[in-house]
Amino acid sequence: MIVSHLSLTDFRNYESAEVELSAGPNLFVGSNGQGKTNLVESIGYLSTLGSHRVSSDQALIRHGAERAIVRARLEHGDRQLLVEVQLNRSSANRAQVNRVAVKPRELPRYVTSVLFAPEDLALVRGEPSTRRRFLDLLLVQLSPRFAGVIADYERVLRQRNTLLKTARGARITDGRLSTLDLWDERLVDLGSEIIEGRQQLVERLRPHVTEAYQRIAGASHRAELALQLSILGAQPDDDAMGDDDAGVAMLSTGEIVEGFRTGLARVRRAELDRGLTLVGPHRDDLLLVLNGLPARGYASHGESWSFALALKLASAAVLRADSALGDPIVILDDVFAELDEARRQQLAAAIGDYEQVLITAAVFGDVPAPLAAHTVRIRAGMIVEDDHPISGGTSAIEPGEVP
Questions:
Q1: N or C: which end of the chain has fewer CB within 10 A?
Q2: What angle in degrees, to the nearest 10, is found between the helix axes of 128-142 and 301-322?
Q3: Residue 215 near residue 346 (C-beta atoms within 8 A)
Q4: How far is it, in rounded angstroms, from Cα 220 to Cα 292?
C-alpha cells in the first residue's frame, strides 16, 4: 500500500498543501521548524488516530482555524481509496472513505504505518507506560477489535479505582466491599485478554527484533524481549531498578486468569490503602534486553537508538506478514541525523524493499543516496522547488464535504 497523493487543509502550519508521493522512498528536506514532520505526522494520524508528538487533536489544527482536514489517496494493486478525516475544535471528528461517512475509529482498517521519530528513544529509556502504549497500538493495528477491549478495560479500571478511593476515604474494610468483587471479575476478563494478546505479540516480535538489531548494529549483538507481568509480582512502575526477572513468564490462558485473580487477592490490602489498582496490564512492562543486560539501564545512546529502531522495524515486519493491505508505510522522522554512517547504510538496506518509505531530514547529505531519489523540499509550510512554491493554493476539501 502507498499514499499517492496527500492533501492538507489547516493542519499544523499548513493552510493548504498538495503533495504527490511515489512508491519507494520519498525524502522531505527542510530546515527545522518548517513543517517536514507535520506532513508525515498527518499520515501517521490516519493509521493510529493519534500524534506521536502531542496527546490532543487540538494541537493539530492550525492556529485560528476551526478544523483541519487530512485527505490521502491510497493505492494497493489496482485498488484506490480516498481516505479523509476532519478534526474539529468544538465538535466530534468526522471521517469518510471514498466519500462515504465512516466512524473515525474505522480509519486504521484502511491505513497501516510504522513511524519512528526522535521521541521513540523513550521506548528504551522511558517509563513502562511508553512501552505499553507501543504494544497496544501495534496490537490494535493487527487486530482492530482490541481497541474496544482496551477501552472497556480502561473504563472498568477507572470505576474500580473510584471505588477503592471511596473505600479508603470511608475507611471501609475489605469484608464490606462486595461490590469490588464484581469489578474484579470484569477486570480479570478484559485484562486477561489484553495480557494474552500482548504475549502473543511479543512472541511474534522477538525474532524480528533480534534480526533487525543485528542488521543495524552488527551480528555480535543480541537484542531480546520479555513481558513483565504485575500479576506475577513485577512492579515496573513502582521500582524501575528492581528484579528484571520478576514476573517474566509465558502463561496459558487459564494461567493468566488464575494468576490475575491470585494477584488481586495478594495486593487487596495495599490497594485499599492506596486507593489504586496495583495489578493488571496497566502495570506491566516490556523488558528490553541487550547482550544479557536490561537496555534501559545499560545501553549507550547509540545502542538505545538502535534498539528503538529495531522495535519499529520488527513492527513493520509483523504488519507486513499479517496485513491484507500489503506493506505498512514506513515513516522515518529525522532519524538519520542521529546515526553514524555505518548505521545509516544498514538502516537504508533494511527498509529498501518496503513499498513506500517516507523520510524527513534537515540535511540532505544525512540520508543515503538510494533513499533520496524522490525529494520534496519544505519551507515555512510550503512545498517548494528551486525556491519557488509549487503548491498551497486551493483547499484539500471543503469543510462541508465531510458528512
A1: C
A2: 20
A3: yes
A4: 12
User: According to the model, what pLDDT value does residue 109 have?
Assistant: 86
Looking at the DSSP bridge assignments, the partners of residue 82 are: 73
Query: What is the sign, positive or negative, of the torsion defined by CA atoms of 289, 292, 295, 296?
Result: positive
- 387 sits in which H/E element: none
pTM of the model: 0.86
What is the CATH topology of the domain spanning 2-112+323-401?
Answer: Rossmann fold (3.40.50)
* pLDDT tens-digit readout, 295-331: 998 999 889 989 999 999 999 999 999 877 789 999 9
Residue with cell 522515518: 332
Strands (E), 233-302: 285-290, 293-294
Length of the chain: 403
Q: Where in the chain is the domain with CATH 3.40.50.300?
A: 2-112+323-401
Q: Which of 78, 81, 79, 143 is nearest to 111 (CA)?
A: 81
**CA distance linking residue 144 with residue 256, whole number of Å:** 22
The average pLDDT across 175-194 equals 87
Ranges of H-type helices in 275-394: 295-298, 301-322, 341-351
Name which of 273, 270, 299 is nearest 287 in CA terms.
299
Task: Give the CATH number of domain 128-297.
Answer: 1.20.1050.90
Tens of pLDDT, residues 113-165:
999 988 899 999 999 999 999 999 999 888 888 988 999 999 999 999 999 99
Q: What is the DSSP letter of 121?
A: G
As annotated, the binding site for ATP includes: 30-37
CA 281 to chain centre: 17
Count of Cβ atoms closer than 10 Å to residue 237 Cβ: 16
Considering Cα of 15, then 20, then 24, then 26, what sign does the dihedral take?
A: negative
Residue 37 makes CB contacts below 8 A (sequence gap 6+) with: 53, 117, 333, 334, 360
Q: Whose CA is closest to 270, among 176, 167, 182, 194? A: 167
Residue that wins the pLDDT comparison between 341 and 190: 190
pLDDT at 387: 40
- The neighbour count for residue 82, using CB atoms within 10 Å, is 17
CATH 1.20.1050.90 spans which residues of the chain?
Answer: 128-297
